[in-house]
Design goal:
By secondary structure, this protein is of the alpha+beta class. Helices cover 32% and strands 36% of the residues. Strand 4 and strand 5 form a beta hairpin.
Length: 138
């Protein structure tokens, strides 16, 4: 299970995320994440990803089934990385879109405060999720 203080970070403070996979030749691939949520088992994370970042995602997951997620709080640089095993994928549901919205708002506020960009402009850089990748944290 993911510890409580890290669950709280994921739900309340994380503002940017990127995922990673590697192919059969151990070549790395980066996939920007537009939202995340933890399933009730507190061991499985749902990562929302826009279609623009799907290159090599599913082929890499088929090659070795490994997936990583790094979540940062912009400003404090508090960061956690989760590694685990692919548990399936699905279309985003209402809860995934709500998680996307929470992450987008936190990112927009943080970037606006730090760099002076409008929150509206910042929101435009977080694209709607197209697919949700589920993985079980090791």
């Amino acid at each position: 299970m993911i510890p409580g203080m890290i669950l709280k970070f994921l739900h309340e403070r994380g503002s940017f995320a990127v995922s990673g996979t590697r192919d059969a030749n151990l070549g790395p691939h980066v996939h920007y994440v537009s939202g995340w949520d933890v399933e009730p088992d507190q061991q499985t994370i749902r990562c929302s990803i826009n279609r623009a970042y799907l290159d090599h995602l599913f082929s890499s997951l088929e090659d070795n089934g490994q997936f990583s997620l790094t979540v940062e709080q912009i400003g404090s640089h508090e960061t956690y990385q989760f590694k685990g095993t692919y548990a399936g994928s699905t279309e985003p549901n209402d809860a995934d879109f709500a998680a996307h919205q929470r992450m987008t708002e936190r990112l927009a506020k943080a970037v606006s405060l730090l760099f002076g960009h409008s929150e509206e402009d910042c929101r435009a850089y977080v694209w709607q999720p197209s697919v949700v990748v589920r993985f079980t944290v090791r």
